Amino acid sequence: MKTQLRAVKLDGAEATRRVEPLVRIQDLRVAYPCCEVLREISLDVGRGRITALIGPSGCGKSTLLSTMNRMIDLIPGTRVSGAIRLGDLDVLAPTTDVVALRRRVGMIFQKPNPFPLSIRKNLSLPLREHGVRKRADIEEATESSLREVGLWEEVKDRLDRPALGLSGGQQQRLCIARALVLRPEVVLLDEPCSALDPIASGVVEDLIVSLRGAFTVVVVTHNLAQARRIADEVAVMWVCDEVGCVVESGSAVDVFENPTNSITAAYVSGARC
Q1: Model confidence over 28-75: pLDDT tens digits?
Q2: CB under 8 Å to 51, separation ≥6 — which residues?
Q3: Of the CATH numbers 3.30.450.40, 3.40.50.300, 1.10.3470.10, 3.40.630.30, which one belongs to the domain with range 20-269?
Q4: CA 211, 215, 216 angle in degrees (round to 5)?
Q5: Distances (CA, A) of 204 to 47, 173, 184, 219
Q6: Which residue(s) pair with 46 in the sheet?
Q7: With 0-12 CB in 10 A as exposed, 13-18 as middle and 19+ as buried, what is 6?
Q8: DSSP 204-241
Q9: What span, in angstroms and rounded, lies between the C-alpha atoms of 206 and 231?
Q10: What's phi and psi for 117, nearest 5 deg?
């Protein structure tokens, strides 16, 4: 798959070098009406890096992701405390413009969810909703984002056909293009390959890698091999006293090859914890 973005391979000292955090999470706590889900989450997300959230099901990875762009607000009765900062923006402040926040922090879900519209309108709609009106600008942004995800050559002659007619892998890449068309600073991906076949999964994985440097990426994955391949930084989440927590975070090299936490060591080695 060809894209306009160049994948930057980080290894050795570059992979472990600390970079300026774009997102800073401090003492985050999240509780649904029924139970507490996250407790004392503190994590820095490096600018331009790919950060993988790994850990068993039920440890709050998806909840953490949805809190970062306030999708959590859509669940009635949810209580959130602590701090999340995106640069100088206080994400959790009551005065924060959530619509503007979600332009800066895009999200792609586990199952592809294109709008039941044409391929073209899947990209033009969010642009128009965010104030882009000139047809030339919309067309330019549409082509650019489709090229970035490697879809342009595949769909350029059928932009007015239904997006739901695309294959699963193409639909997921379209959803990524729909997020990228708004030029977000952060891209959140919640198990983006889990609903795809191995070939489509490989294409999407390569696409995620190509975003390194141009975007700050946070991806939830249960696939440890995938996390090893794509991530610069890793946060290991676990259930501690029945509540989700981060037990270790750091460079992917350190977490996978030299873990400091016994839970991490057992988990990444495949041992039963």
Answers
A1: 999 999 999 999 999 999 999 999 999 999 999 999 999 999 999 999
A2: 45, 216, 217, 218, 219, 231, 232, 233, 234, 235
A3: 3.40.50.300
A4: 110
A5: 21, 7, 18, 12
A6: 21
A7: exposed
A8: HHHHHHHTBTTBEEEEE-S-HHHHHHH-SEEEEEEEET
A9: 12
A10: -135, -175
Q: Report the 10 Å Cβ neighbour count for 161.
A: 13
Sign of the alpha-carbon dihedral angle for 249, 179, 175, 67 = positive
Q: Which residue matches tokens 């952060």?
A: 186
pTM to 2 decimal places: 0.89
Which residues touch 200 (CB under 8 Å, ≥6 apart)?
A: 167, 168, 169, 172, 193
In the chain, the amino acid numbered 200 is A
Distance from C-alpha of 235 to C-alpha of 138, rounded to nearest angstrom: 37
What are the CA-CA distances from residue 118 to residues 129, 158, 236 (Å)?
16, 9, 39
Instruction: Look at residue 14 and tell me whether its pLDDT is greater than 70.
Output: no
H-assigned helices in 50-148:
61-68, 98-104, 119-129, 135-148
Closest by CA position to 151, among listed 131, 187, 178, 115: 178
